[in-house]
Specification:
It contains three helices and five strands. The radius of gyration is 22 Å and the shape is flat. It has a five-stranded mixed β-sheet with strand order 2-1-3-4-5, covered by helices on one side. With 166 residues, it is an alpha/beta fold.
Length: 166
Amino acid sequence: MRYAMPSRSVVVVLLCAALSLTACGWRLQGTTKLSQTMTTTYVDATDRYTDFNRALRDRLRASGAKITDRAGDATAVVKIIKDESGQRVLSVSARNTPEEYEVFYAVEYSVASGGTELIPPQRLELTRDYSYDTTAVLAKQREQAVLREALAQDLAGLVLRRLASL
């Protein structure tokens, strides 16, 4: 089978399209341009394996920051003061069984660089609700876990946008 070479006009059109995408400021979703202050970042947290901590580290790396394991090597320190998630009952049936839950994720963080506090402690909290069905307990537990991970990703994005404004 023979393949035909694309004509010059097709190549020129594709090249112009690629150039216009780079010229308009388009970039991959989830990447943010960070300041020089955040070049080498240390994330100070009591639990390194929470959904939020992992999401924040991934977002920082995707934005070009180097994550270090030693605070002394860092140009900036992101301190995660509080990192908690859970669920609350939103509504119950006439038989007093839960029908709706609210999943929440709350973080409190601050940022310092060279002994100077760049961002004072700030608290962020996001919530999502979902209906509960006693006949699908495993599915609803999985739904809660997925919602919690999504909330952690959203919070990491909010923190990263705040870091980009430094």
